[in-house]
């Protein structure tokens, strides 16, 4: 799957939503492929969630300061609540 490039607008407030939209088809295809292989929907959902969390943690750890790490993790927890 080819992921569309982000738009070159100055408005960064919707970049997260735009990124979600750009990744959605591939994400759904990956989940469907896993279920066709025999994994149930709950297992797939938990695995994909854990992988997303690991990506956030790795990104936070590479951010540098303890404050950056805390902010990244807090944002992840806030978004997970929605």
TrEMBL record:
One of its GO terms (molecular function) is hydrolase activity. Keywords: Hydrolase. This is Putative adenine nucleotide alpha hydrolase (AANH) superfamily ATPase. It comes from Phyllobacterium trifolii.
